[in-house]
Write a structure and sequence with these properties.
Elements lengths: L1 H7 L4 H6 L6 H5 L4 H6 L3 H7 L2 H12 L8 H16 L3 H8 L2 H7 L11 H17 L1 H10 L2 H8 L4 H10 L4 H6 L1 H4 L7 H6 L1 H4 L3 H17 L2 H7 L2 H11 L6 H15 L3 H14 L9 H8 L2 H6 L10 E2 L3 E3 L5 H15 L3 H10 L1 H11 L4 H16 L3 H10 L2 H10 L11 E3 L11 H15 L3 H9 L1 H17 L24 H4 L4 H13 L8 H6 L5 H4 L3 H13 L1 H13 L83 E3 L5 E3 L5 H18 L7 E3 L23 E2 L5 E3 L5 H11 L1
Antiparallel strand pairs: 1-2, 2-3, 4-5, 6-8, 7-8
Helix pairs in contact: 6-7, 7-10, 10-11, 10-13, 13-18, 18-21, 20-21, 20-23, 21-25, 25-28, 27-28, 28-31, 31-32, 35-38
InterPro entries: SAPS (IPR007587)
Family: Belongs to the SAPS family.
Organism: Carya illinoinensis
């Protein structure tokens, strides 16, 4: 007992170290619980770590590379622990650092050009600086303002992603930070930090530098201070950006990332929304974005040079594919140009539309659509361009697309000749010795054609153009209409999947949210089902073993139940139809067999035989026509009984199973003696008599009513004189009460089945 009490009062290992007369910082850093003690604001520990000497040593662990012969803990553990101590955001420790200029100089010595910039230490440096920027914004920005050369050093290291994150926050590309400390951060607007960043496209050939520079500029377009926003969207800055991008000596990554900045200027929310929301915005009718007209004019000055890069005739590189070869492949830079034009069209600028018509940009892009029939990224952007042009209020743009670009004729030609051309001069050539494959842009052409039909109903110009084309009318009637019928997912017998027009719906608008589903009841049923092994195909031992599982192993929460509901929603209508059909074919003997010992069956009967309380065994009985019914078994939960007015007393736990047959009247009941009973509505006395029969069965068999297989038929007939009751020995066979309830023990052998039939006779 003394040992156990002593164990409860054991002090922290950190306290043990602090109790020593002479201990070092390394001893504390080597203790695993030091971070927890810092977060718990251990007074003795924090008072020790706040000392200048300890803060300086922690900074050295972060910014200085460890000697080659040092231990692993000096190389990996100590820098990590030192960084975590600062990011615990203990105010008194951060204050010691930020208010000491020498310590700040030591921290930012990491960005000196001659200093080694290890990626691991750069991450620790970034976390400490961002922590200071968030928690000690005013003194930190005052230090940076007094040492503005730090900004240039950070830009020179922009290829390191951790340094880029520091730079993004430093220039105010964080909405919440800038609004809270406008005065402390306003000085950054007067610097030439944006020019230094954009010049990295020209001074460096590293793709990492180009990507991080573009990301920093894109962040500036979204959450920049007013002064920086005006500067980055000015025509002079756009011209400077395109000069670097269009230089022949520069790598293609410069062009790709420069266009990313232009796209972000036209549509700042595009990068933050992601591809899912971006696609929805593009396919939504009439969706446009707004941009500064001066920014658009600055971009239009370089548009002709961009379109020249879309020419693939002079390229010589070849890419082999599974369907043939590309000569040349489209490339990221051409795809980015098409994406840029797709965003430019959505702006709705009349000046941009006129320039696109004058330069023939739409026609050239349409050529790429058919020259590269297997590039789905390209097809997506071109479809967006065509949709925006068709929905435009600019009549000359629509006329240019229909007349000069000959959109309808090219659609009909592609639908007619839907195999890949074998022309060796085309950019896409099929493989030799194989039949040309089907082109891969037919789906996009179908959507574009449907958009033409839709807009033709509201535009007299489009309608007149389509009606004048007899080939279009014939193709629409014989091909497009039938294709739309096939692709109408609401008419599919297998269920309705999520279609394109459903993707814009919010998750709160899903069908299952509006349906009368009891999520808690479903979760409870699923938990019980898996707990008792109903869905298991394992042997009996494993089924019984499942009873001993912990509830956590089989618990279905509401979130899991909603996943099931989402799948139920897809085939809800089909399930209702299937239930109606199964109800119509409910098994019942013919009224003509009343008084006979034989029940004629014209089809096989599927019987579920449950032999134990786990309900895991299933058998199939297939009696031949003209033979006696050997087994008629029904399974139903006691909690699913219905009241006379159609309302349920309790929600059903298990689904009722019914035997199927071709017999005519579903209201008749087969008695255990083989006779047919024309059912009627049970009386209270009948129910009581049934209960007594059930109790007698429990006494004779030694089993409970829950282990018996019970089937209930509610008979609409009100004439009690037609009811017949066989009060045979319940231990020898089934017991049937006047309300149509039959309890039966499942026979195990053929002799048992014969005994049941003989008892019934």
């Amino acid at each position: 007992m003394f040992w156990r009490m002593a164990g409860l009062s054991t002090t922290s290992p950190v306290e043990t170290i602090l109790d020593k007369e002479n201990f070092t910082l390394e001893e504390l850093l080597d203790e695993d619980e030091i971070i927890q003690e810092c977060k718990a604001l251990n007074g003795r520990l924090i008072n020790y770590l706040r000392e200048r000497a300890q803060v300086e040593q922690l900074i050295r662990y972060i910014v200085e590379e460890s000697p080659e012969d040092s231990e692993k803990r000096r190389t990996f553990k100590f820098p990590f622990i030192a960084c975590e101590i600062f990011t615990c955001e203990v105010d008194i420790i951060l204050k010691t650092l930020v208010e000491d200029e020498e310590l700040m100089n030591l921290l930012f010595s990491f960005v000196e050009p001659e200093h080694p910039h290890i990626t691991l230490l750069a991450g620790y440096f970034s976390k400490v600086v961002i922590c200071l920027l968030l928690r000690k914004t005013v003194p930190f920005m005052h230090y940076i303002q007094a040492h503005q050369d730090i900004v240039k050093k950070l830009v020179d290291l922009i290829g390191i992603t951790s340094i880029m994150e520091v730079l993004i926050r430093l220039i105010g590309a964080d909405e919440h930070m800038y609004t809270n400390y406008m005065e402390a951060m306003q000085w950054i607007e007067g610097t030439d930090v944006l020019e230094m960043i954009v010049d990295k496209f020209n001074s460096s050939d590293s793709p990492e530098v180009h990507v991080n520079a573009a990301e920093t500029l894109c962040a500036t377009t979204r959450f920049a201070p007013p002064g920086l926003s005006a500067k980055i969207s000015s025509p002079s800055f756009i011209g400077r950006l395109f000069r670097h991008a269009l230089e022949d000596s520069r790598p293609k990554s410069v062009l790709v990332n420069s266009l990313s900045v232009c796209i972000s200027l036209l549509d700042p929310k595009r990068q933050t929304l992601g591809m899912y929301h971006t696609y929805n915005r593009q396919v939504t009718q009439g969706s446009t974005v707004t941009a500064n007209p001066e920014t658009i004019e600055g971009m239009l000055e370089s548009l002709s040079d961009l379109l020249k890069l879309l020419d693939v005739s002079s390229a010589e590189n070849v890419l082999l594919t599974t369907y043939g070869k590309l000569q040349p492949p489209l490339g990221k830079h051409r795809l980015k140009i098409v994406e840029f034009i797709s965003v430019l069209v959505t702006v709705g600028s009349e000046a941009a539309e006129k320039e696109l018509i004058r330069l023939g940009a739409i026609q050239r892009i349409l050529d790429l659509f058919f020259e590269y029939p297997y590039n789905n990224f390209l097809h997506h952007h071109i479809e967006s361009i065509l949709m925006s042009c068709l929905e435009s209020k600019n009549a000359p743009l629509i006329d240019h697309l229909l007349q000069e670009c000959n959109l309808v004729a090219r659609i009909l030609e592609a639908e007619k000749n839907n195999k890949l051309e074998t022309d060796s001069n085309k950019p896409t050539v099929p493989a030799e010795g194989r039949s040309p494959p089907r082109i891969g842009n037919i789906g996009h052409l179908t959507r574009i054609s449907n958009k033409l039909v839709q807009l033709g109903n509201s535009s007299s110009e489009i309608q007149a153009y389509l009606q004048e084309n007899g080939e279009w009318n014939e193709w629409y009637t014989n091909v497009l209409s039938k294709q739309n019928a096939v692709e109408n997912v609401y008419q599919w017998a297998c269920g309705r999947p999520t279609a394109l027009h459903d993707r814009t719906r919010d998750s709160d608008d899903d069908d299952y949210q509006d349906r009368d589903y009891d999520v808690a009841a479903l979760a409870n049923n699923l938990s019980q089902a898996f707990r008792y092994g109903i869905y298991s195909n394992d042997d009996i031992d494993e089924a019984h073993g499942s009873l001993e599982r912990d509830d956590e192993d089989v618990y279905f929460d509401d979130e899991s139940a909603e996943v099931v509901l989402s799948s139920l929603r897809l085939g809800d209508d089909q399930e209702r139809i299937a239930n109606e059909r199964s109800t119509a074919s409910l098994a019942s003997p013919s009224p003509n067999t009343e008084g006979d010992d034989v029940i004629n069956c014209s089809s096989d009967d599927n019987v579920v035989i449950c032999e134990d309380d786990d309900l895991v065994d299933t058998a199939t009985s297939s009696p031949e026509t003209g033979t006696k019914s050997e087994n008629t078994t029904h399974l139903m939960s006691e909690n699913s009984r219905e009241t006379g007015d159609g309302e349920t007393d309790k929600p059903p736990e298990w689904v009722e199973w019914r035997e199927t047959s071709d017999s005519g009247d579903p209201t008749d009941v087969v008695l255990p003696n083989g006779k047919t009973q024309v059912g009627s509505k049970p009386s209270e006395s009948d129910v009581a008599e049934s209960s007594s029969s059930t109790n007698e069965l429990e006494k004779n068999d030694g089993t409970s009513a829950e282990e018996s297989l019970v089937s209930t038929y509610e008979n609409p007939s009100s004439d009690p004189s037609k009811q017949e009751l066989d009060n045979g020995n319940p231990s020898l066979g089934p017991t049937t009460s006047s309300d149509g309830v039959m309890a039966e023990g499942a026979p195990e052998t053929e002799d048992d089945k014969k005994d049941v039939n003989q008892t019934g006779n």
